[in-house]
Design brief:
heterodimer; A: 119 residues; mini-chromosome maintenance (MCM) complex, domain 2; elongated; B: 178 residues; mainly alpha; Arp2/3 complex 21 kDa subunit ARPC3
Chain lengths: 119, 178
């Protein structure tokens, strides 16, 4: 590894560390709510609720389950199913992304004017 | 590092064709295995080996050809052509190529530096496209973690490229000099 290589490695590492506070900033208040954004609608579900939500994505339907204070993607028709394999999240600022379907799930975060509030 | 083959030579064309095939196969193999850590945009990037080799052996144009052709072949083989996954793959591959092409013009870098820079660009582009697809900034929340993973993957692929270039007779400097 040359000196230039080390500089590139250090730059990428610095970029990653610099991006860290962004995740905290974006999470904001209201950590007890899961914000689910699909191509057509945004839903806010309190984490203490038990809900099963079918969100229509770009390619297929994404099934999202809120239970036991956490939220997970139970099923998705996308190919890699990274969203399903991401498991359950419950900490503020954490997120699950199903990119092929254009669906995101995150904990907390400022309300981007939700279309529906599910109680 | 200077390319060892002149880009117009028959040998260069043959090497590019071979690298497209290798890159496509590695890409298909990689899509067959789900990545160990489920973060969108992060994968080991085996196919990038072919692009790094093309860049080192022939040059930027060749690396771009390998990039575009292998993305196309992988998309055709996996049936994702034109879909959102294809948009992410293409954006990641092109950004990775652009950064690696630029890094390869700097003198004090080796293939390891190119690969790490390319991996970071790949992840950044994929997360940006994912943000466009989802219409939210949520994918960017994954950026710190993804970039660190990309760093590790870039080092692995870069070091592998280095070993291939220095050990494999087929793609060594003497191959081009003949």
């Amino acid at each position: 590894m040359t000196r230039g290589d080390r500089i590139v490695v250090a730059l990428v590492a610095a970029l990653a560390l610099a991006a860290w506070p962004l995740a905290g900033m974006a999470s904001g208040h209201d950590a007890a709510v899961a914000v689910i954004t699909g191509p057509r609608a945004t839903y806010r579900v309190p984490l203490d609720a038990t809900r099963r939500l079918d969100v229509r994505g770009l390619e297929s339907t994404v099934t999202i389950v809120v239970e036991h204070g956490s939220v997970r993607v139970a099923d998705s028709g996308c190919r890699d199913r990274l969203c399903v394999r991401s498991g359950a999240i419950s900490a503020a600022g954490s997120a699950i992304v199903c990119a092929p379907n254009g669906v995101t799930v995150r904990i907390g975060g400022r309300a981007d004017a939700p279309d529906a509030l599910i109680r | 590092m200077r390319p060892t083959l002149s880009s117009g030579s028959a040998r260069a064309v043959a090497v590019v064709a071979m690298l497209v095939a290798v890159g496509a196969i590695l890409g298909i193999v990689e899509t067959a295995f789900a990545p160990a850590i489920p973060v969108p945009g992060v994968r080991l990037g085996l196919a990038n080996l072919a692009v790094v080799l093309a860049l080192a052996l022939v040059g930027r144009g060749a690396a771009l050809r390998v990039t575009l052709l292998r993305v196309l072949v992988v998309a055709l083989a996996t049936g994702s052509l034109g879909g959102p996954a294809f948009a992410m793959a293409l954006a990641g591959a092109l950004c990775s190529w652009a950064v690696m092409a630029w890094l390869s013009s700097l003198r004090s870098l080796s293939v390891i530096g190119w690969s790490v820079g390319g991996a970071a660009a790949h992840v950044a582009a994929q997360l940006a496209v994912a943000s466009l697809l989802t219409g939210t900034a949520v994918p960017l929340l994954l950026a710190p973690f993804s970039l660190l993973l990309a760093l590790g993957c870039g080092l692995v692929i870069g070091y592998s490229s280095h070993l291939l270039l220095s050990r494999l007779p087929l793609v060594s400097a003497e191959f081009g000099a003949r």
